[in-house]
């Protein structure tokens, strides 16, 4: 599969009366490899950018880009196509008509990436250009803010050194319980994985903090439902079994957690 848009990698392939609204330049403090990963990742749109996207359903995708439906009745869609080694284009369509065309150029510079976004829409009156350009610039500032935070955290997780000990003394049980009661996270590392402590039905248990999908933060523990959620792509995991219970197509699972053992009033985390 590839883009449905004929000549997707060229400018204005439908020969519309295209108007440039604005240009947005931004230095992203994450390397180019993280940015391309993010561009091709349609799945984060309704979760990481939950205030900007109401409905996202995959139609098809691949190394060429992706196409998603923008509403449940499939009358609108967005198609993103890689146009060259350093650029991609996103177009939105409504009832078969192209509504926008947004070109992005990426220039890698070590640990950062220079991004330039150009916004186009067809048939925009002269007196609407500035306002629409501002709306698009504001929207993209927010999207890139959210993306940059995700990319930086993923980059840090990919390269950080984590404690390889098999067993850790986590300190006094009473201290840990009072921290949890205040809503503070209690985290620790064993065997190069990171865990947090949660209290479930009175028992202290260890739950991974790093999502097995793409290393997102698993800090939203719902102890009543017995699930932990990741804010990046919305995956949900059953705390007891470790199975991914949402979405259906996911094929990852929480890693095994250490046992938490009480000894002399202290909590010991031990990996079997
Ligand atoms: S990193 Fe994708 S759902 Fe957690
Ligand atoms: Fe994004």
Main beta sheet strand tally, sense and closure: 7 strands, antiparallel
In percent terms, what proportion of residues is strand?
35-45%
Please, what is the CATH homologous superfamily of the largest domain?
START domain
How many strand segments? 17
Helix percentage: 10-25%
CATH architecture descriptor of the largest domain: 2-Layer Sandwich
Number of helices: 4
Name its key features.
four-stranded antiparallel beta sheet, elongated, seven-stranded antiparallel beta sheet, 272 residues, binds FE2/S2 (inorganic) cluster, 4 helices, Alpha-D-Glucose-1,6-Bisphosphate, Chain A, domain 4, alpha+beta
Secondary structure: elements and pairs:
Elements: E1 18-28, H1 32-39, H2 45-48, E2 57-62, E3 65-69, E4 76-84, E5 87-94, E6 97-109, E7 112-122, H3 129-159, E8 167-172, H4 173-181, E9 187-190, E10 193-200, E11 203-208, E12 220-222, E13 227-229, E14 236-238, E15 244-246, E16 259-263, E17 266-270
FE2/S2 (inorganic) cluster binds next to loops.
């Amino acid at each position: 599969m590839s883009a449905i848009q004929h000549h997707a990698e060229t400018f204005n392939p439908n020969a519309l009366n295209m108007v440039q609204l604005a240009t947005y330049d931004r230095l992203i403090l994450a390397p180019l490899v993280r940015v391309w990963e993010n561009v091709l990742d349609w799945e984060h749109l309704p979760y990481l950018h939950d205030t900007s996207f109401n409905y996202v359903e995959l139609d098809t995708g691949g190394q060429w880009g992706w196409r998603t439906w923008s509403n449940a009745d499939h009358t609108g869609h967005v198609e993103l196509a890689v146009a060259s080694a350093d650029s991609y284009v996103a177009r939105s369509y409504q009832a078969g008509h192209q509504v926008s065309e947004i070109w992005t150029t990426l220039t890698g510079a070590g640990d950062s990436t220079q991004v330039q976004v150009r916004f186009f829409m067809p048939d925009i009156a002269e007196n609407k250009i500035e306002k629409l350009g501002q709306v698009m610039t504001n929207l993209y500032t927010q999207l890139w803010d959210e993306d940059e935070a995700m990319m930086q955290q993923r980059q840090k997780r990919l390269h950080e050194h984590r404690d390889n000990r098999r067993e850790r003394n986590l300190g006094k049980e009473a201290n840990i319980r009072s921290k949890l009661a205040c809503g503070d996270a209690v985290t620790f590392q064993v065997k190069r994985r990171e865990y947090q402590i949660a209290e479930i039905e009175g028992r202290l248990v260890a739950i991974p903090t790093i999502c097995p999908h793409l290393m997102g933060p698993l800090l939203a523990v719902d102890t009543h439902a017995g699930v932990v959620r990741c804010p990046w792509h919305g995956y949900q995991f059953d705390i007891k079994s470790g199975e991914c219970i949402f979405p259906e197509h996911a094929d990852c699972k929480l890693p095994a957690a250490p046992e938490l053992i009480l000894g002399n009033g202290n909590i010991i985390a031990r990996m079997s």
